[in-house]
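[job 0412] stage=fold_complex status=start
inputs:
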Amino acid sequence: MNAKQMNAKQTTREVIDETGRHVAVPVAVHRIVTLAPNLAEIVYALGAQDRLVGVSNYSDSPPEAKSKPRIGMPTNPNLEAVVAAHPDIVLITTEGNRRETADELARLGIAVYATNPHSVESMLESIEHIGGVIGATAQAESVVANLRQRLNALQSKLASAPVARVFFVVGESPLISLGEHTFIADALRYAGARSVVQAKQDWPQISLEELVRLNPDYLVFASSGFGGEDSTAKQLAELRSEAGWRELAAVREGRVVVVSDEIDLPAPGLIDAIEKLARQLHPNVFEDAAQHASLRPLSASVPAHAHLQFTVSQDSCTEALACAR
Amino acid sequence: MRPLTPRRIAGICALLAGVLFIVVVFSLQVGAYPISVRDVAMTLVRGALGHWNSIPSSDRLIVFGLRLPRIALGILVGAALSVSGASFQALLRNPLADPYVLGVSSGAALGAILALVWLQRFPWAMQGLAFLGALATIAAVYFLGRRKGQLDSATLLLAGIITASFLSAIIMFLMTTVSGRDMRGMAFWLMGDLGTAPAIGLGFLFFILLIGIGAIYTTSSDLNLILTGEQEAHHLGVNVPRVKLVVYASASLLTGLAVSVSGAIGYVGLLVPHVMRMLFGSDYRVLIPASAIGGAIAVALADTLARTVVAPTELPVGAVTAAIGAPVFIYLLRRRLA
Amino acid sequence: MSTQGIPAPNAGRDAAADWMQNPVRLLVEQASYAYSASDRDAPDFTLGPVTFSARQREVVGILGPNASGKSTLLRLLSGEFKPLSGRVELDGKPPSQLPLRERAQRIAMVHQESALTFPLRVWEYVLQGRYPYGRRLRFENEADCLMAENALAQVGAKALLDRRMDQLSGGEGQRVILARALAQQPLLLLLDEPTQHLDIGGKVELMRRLRKLAEGNRYTVVVVTHELNLAAEFFDSIVLVQRGKCLASGKPADVYRRELLEQAFETELDVEMNASGKPRVILRGGEETEIAEDSAETPKESQ
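[job 0412] stage=fold_complex status=done
writing structure:
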């Protein structure tokens, strides 16, 4: 038992983290280390960035996080660097960190709190838990309330829109999509979409034939693999030239979306990504009232059911106009 | 004519131990957490004298909690892999043999991935099942590798390669069913990782290491003779079947041990014996201890590089041994051909 | 069949006295062996029964066509095989029942040269011959080194001491292998076709050396060979085998009878005596002719 542990005994409380481990968390947390990018983002969202003394590599969101001291990759953090930061608590996640890292840190007498985000809802709960652990309960409540409200607003907007059948392309060759239990699959639901792939594995490999059979309404690409968010047009052009892909209705009609990587990050930025995605999948629902008179050109012909929505949502556009004034 | 004497062996071991000592001191001193050499020395001395309370807590944590165990583990794994590699090179009479050629690491990998898939809740499941996988593979390859009741080198090699290949296929299949987070742990294991403390105490592991190396050492004269031919060795009085069994079992156990605690670190078992041969000759009475210490030096150094070269990012130690090992291998190859 | 080297009862007291001073060291009596593919199958190959004996300072040759059982017989002598019937004894003890190290102290086998996995120096190689003495894990002492040097000197290879094994010529390698066997200080020296890769000069030199070694070191030497004439010239007795059967054993002059040799080797040949009273085999060249069962010609034979 080292000195740190001896001192800590008087000033800690026991909590159970999201993986069921019992953690002795200091009552006063002044120094925080995060071992995954989403956790750094959450700490910033909770306004506790001044107490953040170490982040994992590639913690770039928000951009201010780039200036924080790096302590290595999530899968293999430099334990010495973590110890050198003298953290009161280390935040880890099951999505990105290894169990062995948690065990090692615990062995060294450092408090480790593990989150286990498997859905959008659990992510929101994680934010609350983290807020409680680091002593930012009030901020956590307000952040989560705000995010929930945005999600609810989104839900009501999309209530009448049909669920878009989406094929999420994780990798093009081999062709890999998402399983039902993945985080992104859950996020898609909030964006008024549904992944057409039904698989228990996290990253199932799908044949092109199967893709053609599924005939999704939309193809969604994660931006990091496909050249950034502004590359939709380029992506579409490429697909139109490829055999098999060009037969898909989604490609022919230009219903291809590139979404930001935030869609896979269990952090507040996720909600931004969901909103953006929703806009791209259901453009008619979100049309600006001022533009409702002119037909905003879509990159190709408009799907049949969109006409209906156009008429139905005119009222909501008028409403929005009224609120905007 | 200069026959090998125990004194010469002791001298070589002392020399290598000296190099190892320097490497250990160097490794203790480098790392993300800045401690001066003086402080490291003070910490070591105080620790040795038992004055634990006089050492600053973070120094103690870094030196005794992080660096020393990691270096010790590297020494253990390096010694085990090198002795095992040298042994298999003699057993199979093949200079390209390495500790993994008989499939032990594939069995351990299968055990590890099964632990990942089924026994996630248990902290030491991966190491435990890896070792069990190694044992099962050792037994299976033994039974497959026999001819007329005793181990036959060619049959053994074939049995090992086929077993490894079969196990790899199963592992690949399992990896497609495994989730993303588990893949990460598996990938780490496959690349070699000295950062995780072993489930069983280091002291006990070193004890097993010494027993394994000792058992092989008692056959070192026999191995010298077997290397000139099994028939020839038999006619000189070597109990060839028994020697082969002892060497096979001990070397495989050493490999299983190393791989369970650190994953599959490559190139060490293959190359360290060759380098030691170049320096000190092919006599196994000196090659076994030289390989043990040489391997310890190699892995300790490689791991230190792995954790400091692009700090704070840590490279997998297997990547460093491969990066250094491959050019060394090419160099050795050219020398032999030239 | 001719006699086995044990003097006939009526040979006189001199012969008996001589026999006491030079007793039979190697005794093979009705020894047989059989190979089969598995325990349940019928034997694929049977050797024996074979009977012969040899004393100190004698060189015995085992001759016969290919696959006649020569190597099997050698392995019976080395103790690798245990005779299925009959007995093989070296100084009264069956080699197959001796512990391996004791066996290696009495019997040395000279093999063909085989490729070494790792480079070895000549002196290291020869020193390995001392392995049977002392503990299993032992370090060679001065006496061992002297014996190794001596062994090399006896084969005329002292100059090769520091050379690497893979840099030796065929003949040099052969000598070093022989030296290692000599370093074992055996009673019985066994060689399996040692002249295969040697030229004529090398073959004669080897035979001479074996003769000298047998005399000087009081070995019993048994050589499996194809060299009919060299064997007749240098060896004390011959054991002729064909298809697992021992056709004859005894002095070369007794064994080298035309019909026996023609039967063994299934080829036409002549046997004549040379100046020193030793037989010489001459192959008949030309067209194939059937071996005459009863030839009208009188064979040129001694005695």
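[job 0412] summary: The domain at 6-194+208-337 of chain B is CATH 1.10.3470.10 (ABC transporter involved in vitamin B12 uptake, BtuC).
[job 0412] exit 0
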